[in-house]
Amino acid sequence: MQTKSLVSVNTLIVDAVIIALFCITPAIMHLFGLSYHYFEPMRIALFAGMLIVGNHQNSYLLAAVLPISSMILSGMPTPIICALMVVELLLNVKLFYWLTKLGKNAIAGMLVSIIVSKVVFRLLKCLCVSGIAFNSANLMANWQSQLIMSIVLACGFGLLLKLTEKKAAS
Fold this sequence. Notes:
Layout: H1 9-31, H2 36-39, H3 41-53, H4 56-74, H5 79-103, H6 106-129, H7 136-140, H8 143-169
């Protein structure tokens, strides 16, 4: 009797390539003197996996594995931030799938899921890292660039998702 696996070998190969590319992204960004924090390589890697594979279970797997692989390979983020990033990315995936199922709008679903997951991450980070001394400056740090990047990611990946859905329907 054959058992059906949740994630295929091809999917695992795609995941390995995405994780490898994600792990070398900081070095490439430093080579060109760019700050990779603004470009959100982890979220881009996650969305690339969602777009290429199109498997919900795999999206959750990538959301958990990306921060952990970064922590193991580079020592960053710290374990507590890694755990918070896993929560953030899992929430991002869950909200995206839930919102697009409800509203059928990939761009809006992507944008709202990114913003909500970022706010939850920042709140959790302030509570866990700053402790009782809640730091509102930490919560609001770089919010303009974060909002711009959220809009760019939502529009870019939302449009790509729409295009791939139209091609698949044709």
